Amino acid sequence: MVGVMSGGRGAFREQVMSLLHDAKLQEDTAAKMDMMGRVKDILLSRDSSLLAEFVPHILEFHYDAVSEVRSTVAEIMEEIALKYQDSVPLVVPVLETLMQDNIPAVVRCAVRVGSNIFCNIFRQVAMQGIFVGHVEKSLERSWSCATKLKDSICSIGKEHVNGGVRFMTFKFLETMIFLFTPDPNLPAESPLQQNWDGRTFNISWIMQGHPILDTESLGQEADRYLTYLLEQVSDETFVRLSGPVAIVLVTSLSTIAKQRPDIYRRITPALTRLGSVCEEIKGPQRASIIHALRSCLVALLRCAHSVTGNWRELLVTVLKAMNAGDLADAAIRQTDRMLRNAERERAFRDYHLSKKDKLHPVDYKRPLQENGSVPSLLNVNSAKRLRATAENSVTSSQDIKIISDAEGTGSTQNPVGLNVDSKLTPLQQMIAMIGALVAKGERAASSIEILITSLPPDMLADVVIENMKNLPTSPPALPSVANVAGSSDAQANMTGSLKADEAPALPPVNIAESPKSVQTAADHRRDPRRDPRRMDPRRSAVPVGGSRQTVSVAAKLEEPVVEPSCSSSGLASTLVLATVTPVPDSTAPVLDIPSVHLEVPEVREEVVSRSITVQPNGSSWREAEISLDQKAFDIPSDSRNENVGVSADSSGTLQLESVALPAASSLVAEPSSIPGPLNTDSQISAAQCTDTAVSPVSFVPTVQVEPIISDQVRSEAVHTLSSTSMAGPAPATPFVPLNDSQQLALWKVLFLRILEKHVVPESACSSNLRFSLLPRLISQCIADEEAIMILQDFILADYHNHKGHELTMHMLYQLYGDKTSGDRAIVASKVYDDFLIAVAQGIRETLPPTDKSLSRLFSEAPMIPVGALKWLESICNPSGTDVVNGERIFQGLSAVWILILLRPPLRAECLEIALKCAVHEVDEVRTKAIRLVANKLYPLPYNSQRIEDFAMSMLYDVVGREHNEEGVKSLGCEAVPQRQPTLQVVNDGEDSLATADKQAMHGNSVQQDRHQGGKVNLSIGEAQRCMSLYFALCTKKVSLLRHLFEMYENAPKAVKQAAHRNMPVLIRTIGSNSSDLLQLLSDPPHGSKNLILLVLHLLTEADPPSHDLIAIVKQLYESKIKDARLLTPILSSLSKAEVLPIFPHLVALPTEDFKAALDRILQGSVHTGPALTPAEVLVAIHAIDPERDHIPLAMVKDACSVCFQQRTVFTQQVLAKVLNQLVEQTPIPMLFMRTVILAVGTFRSLVSFVMEILSRLVSKQIWKWPNLWIGFLKCADQTQPHSFHVLLQLPAVQLDKALHKHPNLRAPLTNYASKPTVRSNLARPVLVVLGLIQDGVSSDPASHSQAVPNATTTILENQIRETTTS
Amino acid sequence: MQVKMKLRYAMVCSSNQNRSMEAHALLLKRGFNVNSYGTGAHVKLPGPSIKEPNIYKFGTPYRAMYEDLKRKDPELYKRNGLLQMLKRNLAVKEAPHRWQENAADGIFDVVFTFEARVFDIVMEDLQDRGHNFMKSVLVVNVDVKDNHEGAALGARLALEFCRLVESVESWEDEIDSIVQKFEKQHNRRPIYSIGFY
Q1: Quick one: which of A1157, A1159, A1171 has its CA closest to A1128?
Q2: For chain B, what are the domain ranges?
Q3: Regarding the domain delimited by B8-40+98-196, which CATH topology (the fold level of the hierarchy) does it fall under?
């Protein structure tokens, strides 16, 4: 080991050499592979410097006869290439050879290794370009090898017959598609070098430009791969695929669709079609393929991106057809849940965005647009966003660079001459860029196309509007009608129109085409197709001259050709201000100042010539001039006459605007350092100076877009414009401006045309462009109500399909911008208000109540005017005459909710609306509002205080209504004094209440009227109305409940009723574990006993009372409320020992309450069983001593009766048991005989048992207890003839008395006794008493009767009995 | 002498207790390079009633569960076979492992599941992991019941299937015929899919 260490490189070298040598000679495959592995380890981890020397030796093994060894070579190559990219050029040829191997496993391994190597190199190349700005030579070499490798893999995949190889290549293609297309789930901007994990990558990171990677061609490549994969799922091909290939194919496709929403719509139909195709598959793989497809479809269904919606139905249908309806349903439910959550999140996010957007009305971009509408599927440029950041400027500049490179012009010379260092707005930069590209002529046509397709719609719209000022006011003749008719996609047209070699195509937004006016340009250099303005769909609408302030500045520099109306026009557009922060950037192009100058030639020829002067870097000014024939729009005669109002004459009288395109400008480090508007001369000179001054150091501006007002113009970038000579015919043409009405009419026609196209389903890009264009157009003809009405009707005609929300938002933001920008502020403000309300009203009337559009509209609108709030209130709070539709109200309330959540300034107003609804007369309105207020709004800390105050004031109000004079006084004192200080000084209850009302109600007139009306007979409904919110709040904050308890005593009956009515739900919701509730119960306010009883009852209704509750109740019973009813609810949980002492108190309760208590006692708890058994209950009742326990005897009797009524509980067995026990007691309970009588009356079958009891009583000398004796006789009377033998057991004296007392007994008894069997057993005196024998010595019954009560007669009686029995 | 197996296998059920462990034990005995996992959120074992299952975290040693159940109701858990099962398990490995957290265990060549739901979860999980190595993995499912008999049957089927997979040059090329053979022999149709690491 020491030797190795000291030997260093030499030792390793020798080791490797010997290992390689041995491996070559080794015949055992495993040993050979092991040796190779050791070689690899040494090379990779010990001494990488040996790599270059030994890699070729290892590579030799790829000719080994054993396939495993060949695979191992590939794997070793992978590790080496991943670690040392320099080795890639060495490795790639070997891998390419291995890909031709006969053994599929080796090919698969090579494909896998190649794929990993390619991905690694690709990422390295991309990131080096981003971080370093260039790619090292060696890496570039590796990259070109890796590209070759990639192509090899692709071609192998297409040709190879082996399934395993094919699915590996499918997987590879999937990986390529992921690599080459932007990942919406990753940040669109590259991380800092130190933050990059070395694995994650998003192609968006290099869209801003890369030294060797061309995102566009990569995107096209991905598109090709996708097309190939999709071809494989065509019916006949798919059926023939082997199981693994088919499964990997569908899985790959669905994975792509899931992760690339843009591609979703291409893949989904293809996969759904397979549902039926699968049925045709034969063989063992069938079930697996079907299962895989089903899983993929479910996965597609579960995708949450916005495009999914349209495909849901289809997916569900297909899944159902594949017997996977339940899976589909589950997936839908899951997705819906996710979407709801996402919507919630989005709402919050938008809130923050909208806050920002209020500052940037023009650049308003909704997140949905950003997320969901990436224009073309695989066009990597399409995902590009205009970001107002430093990178943004790089984007612009580098785009051009890429484009110019692509054009083969090379990067050494910058033909475009862009100045990205200047303080230009993004818009100006973009215009300058387009101008510069146009200057390049046909070579740049495709570059322009790329540039334009990649522009965000907002930016494109601004470019269009900006350039419209440069247009002739008269639409020049257009040659092609057919082209327009065939054009369905504005985007395609516009971009297409830029291709110089194509036939002229018109943007679809042309007002019309005039076949008559075909004027071909004489000069090819005036080819209109090269003019970027051709893409401007609103060109014909330009006459009014959008007078942006930027342009005004520019116009000052113009030669006299500038049409005065240009700057004097009253129609101001929103302005974009660029605040420029210079950032050093070594890659920025040199400072060039292109200047585009436009002149309008003779209008009769309808040819516009435009010259663009490019001022390149340095002192040598290169002037590139191109003149373009301008083919603008021509208005057909019919529309001119009928709609537009531009007469045939006027076609020749056109307004000219000539404005230089804002070009590169003088660079000033700090915008604020510009003192004020510069005069023309100084600007020009500044421009010229900065040219040389700045060129050594270039800057990339960080652009922050903000709205500006006119006085901020001075801080705007200063444009230098060099006007050049006119390239067209003499400018002597008279220009006649259109009058206002003509302009308006023109706008309108144009506008209608755009709308028509809007209906046609198109790519997202073009519709986004329309979104941006339409509002700007309307903004131009803002005075015309009709245009707004048309848009409004259009939006509402089919809100969702017409993308009403997006359109409305764009419109609102445009109007909002206009509102703040001065000139048309008043008009715009009114239009804004009306438009918002009208759309909201329309949504409410046309869309289903469950639709969320209304909420979304209100949450995303730039601002909510007072009128709209009023409208909202009116729908939430329908007056009595309106038909109440609960769902509609919910719609309104949802909007209110969203406003409260997302618009803090409106919170108070919206909360008031919700609160008013919460006390609405109509139950349905009220319920919904209360649900909103209590569940959603109350938990929000900023709302809770106000809601609580309101609910309390309503409660105090309703309680106080009948107690204006006396009751309120005290209430007023308690009425949340800490919250409403004015209530503290309360001498006059009415005053205080009125004050509270005024504070809390904010003009709830109904309430106040009633209140001021003095005593009003309060109905329970009214009480309910006012208290519902309070009750709802109590469920959230239990401590509030104390207020009700405090005022309960003095509350009007209706309030009490309402309280009782609400309490069950309330208590159930609160539950018995609430500490606040227990606290309240342990210390209840005075007079709230009934309520406490109710609460206790409710608390114990479902669940057994908790220990805490039992303790509280006991304590309460002992201290404050001496009412046994209090104990009733907890009886079931008490033990026998606890119940018995209080039992007499329970008996003393009114019958109903006793019954309830009895139920509880008998019911008991699950764990301990009943506290007392029925028998014990009866015994306990009998144990009550009315005198001792101070309980009226009648109540004890009632208690007994209550027991007897429950025949199922107090069964005859129970009674027998009880009687048995009682009869043994001494003394016998007072009510014993009564109970016996009742028992036998209730259960006749007890008769024989009772007779036994009676006999025992006889033996106990029952006659000694007069009360019982009476009962005894009564019982005997009632149970005759069964009682005869008992009676005959009586001593003669008592028998005689009994017969006297109940003479009706005598005859039957005598009759009974006279039976020989009976008679023989009877004593003589008895027989005498019965008159069965005459006895001279018979004693006087009267003397006996007198003797009965006396104890002194006992001896005598005993004697008699003895004689009779003997 | 046992032939060295070419591939790495994973047996997966929902709790890594019964079916996957039975198969794990059997395949281990037959010399396979095998591991086992569960895909559920927790390890669930039957309790005194259907509503009172015994729930453990993945990673809780089988021994701890054994002790726990023994303490709770030795009779019941002996009667329903849980104690025996746990005893078997703790002889195979220490604790149940969760499939979704097995990235550190490396790459498997064949994953065998015993329930369609588990199969889907495994596939979904593989897709969510991202494919960094382009390494294909065969995932196979054969439905068996989650009871002791089912587990024993499942283990036998898994063993048979793995033997078939092991017997061919590369499953990538022969999986369809393997499935066909298996179906013929055992009258059960396995579902398979291809995932990627």
Answers
A1: A1157
A2: 8-40+98-196, 43-92
A3: Rossmann fold (3.40.50)
